[in-house]
Amino acid sequence: MTSNDKEASLEKGIGPYLETQAEDLTELNTESGVNRAYELKCHLINKCLQEEIGFGRYQIELFVLTGFGWMADNIWLQGVAIVLPQVQQELNPVRVEFATLALYVGLIIGASLWGVLADLIGRRSHLMGIRYRSAGSPNFTLRSVSGCLGFGVGGKTISGALYLEHIPGSYQWTLTLLSAWWAIGQLVASVVAWGFIGNFSCASDVPVGQCPKAENMGWRYTLRLGALTLLMFICRFFIFNLQESPKYLIANGRDEEAIKVMEHLARKNGKSISLTLDQLQEIQGSATLPPRTMLQVPLFAGRKLAINSSITILLWRLPPFYLRDRVPSGNSAVSVTYRNYTIVSVLGIPGSLIACAVVDWTRRSGKYSFGGRKLVMAVSTTLTGIFLFLFTTSNSQAAVLGYTCTTSVTSNAMYGVLYAYTPEVFPAPHRGTGDSIASSFNRITGILSPVIKIATTSAVGATGANVNGWARKRIEYPWV
């Protein structure tokens, strides 16, 4: 039976399809990384989501809640970097970069742990954020809390997997739209820093170590962003009734709980469903995955899946862009610096929106169907690399601001597609682990980026070469 025949048979119902099959439904499919019984049950779940539950109140609230996680991640990635110049000016630590290093160590541990736990004990177990309180702390405490903070927000990518498994297929484009929250996080951090650090900090010409605390409270006020993270935590645990992923439950033999989750989603949306436990159990053979270790996760079960998983994970090696310190001499007032940073942050939002619109437009059937995610990722990464190369030619503040703004648009588009594509490409039962490996890879290269920047004056150019190289790889492998 061809794949088209299978789909046609499935549309008529699982029962008639099963009667025509003699295959072992428990055998692992090396193309998808899961067994056939699991695929059939997921077909029923997806059909129910698409045709009966739809995209309603529950999905909208989950979109906002997931967005909070993405927003918190970038608030603190940017927030720690934003306050370091003022910390250096006041406290004069031997190596202020250790705060960033501690943050990334925490991010690596968090990314490694939360993703694996999401596959082992459930999607909703991952941490949405922790309260950040270091505004009155000197060197060691700041580094320690930075590490704890990184550990807390390190599992942000798992939010995308949880969101993906609760929405109908026709609204999968909203996963790309989630990246706008990441850009909003940067904007919030930069606006708060502009208001506080720009007005409550020592002048930039004050010698390092001679800036009194009373005149440099801006960075402490900025770190009160922890209250916003705490509010997100309250919404997650006390306001929104977050449900477990039905696909995770099926993969662990908990079909009855999966049906209850689907019924809850339907009630929340004011709908009803016809899917029953009997229909799931009509599928002979267990969809439950056997106990496994990290080395046994079938992310590389077949050649196609192995290549695609490898390319996706390697794409995450693109290091963060360290452009903040490359500012030419001229007007270096603190308020001007953070004003420019806010302008750059604002332009990150349209980058995410453009990616969302173009991804959906280019994957439609018809005259203008020519690429989808592959096209948008390749174009956005190529443009990002070009603008990073051009950035190295800057000889004025206007040029720096211009190239940084354009890079903000294209890089946010690039990451928007990458964040959406990553949970889609991995098998559903192993999305947490796949996201964990990819995110950990990104955090590891994040630690290496400052080292490259210190060791060479052309670090941005090297980043541009990396970006363009991976744009080419994205085009070479067509299964996107």
From TrEMBL:
**Main localization of the protein described in the UniProt heading:** membrane
The record's keywords, sorted A to Z, are: Membrane, Transmembrane, Transmembrane helix, Transport
The keyword Membrane is assigned to this record: yes
Keyword set includes Manganese:
no
Q: How does it sit in the membrane?
A: Multi-pass membrane protein
Q: Which GO terms describe its cellular component?
A: membrane
Provide the GO MF annotations for this entry: transmembrane transporter activity
Query: TM segments?
Result: 101-121, 180-201, 221-239, 343-363, 375-394, 400-421
Report the domain of life of the source organism.
Answer: Eukaryota
Tell me, what's a Pfam family for it?
Answer: MFS_1
Which locations, inside or outside the cell, does it occupy? Answer: Membrane
Q: What name does the UniProt record give this protein?
A: Major facilitator superfamily domain-containing protein
Source species of the chain: Gymnopilus junonius
Organism lineage reads as: Eukaryota, Fungi, Dikarya, Basidiomycota, Agaricomycotina
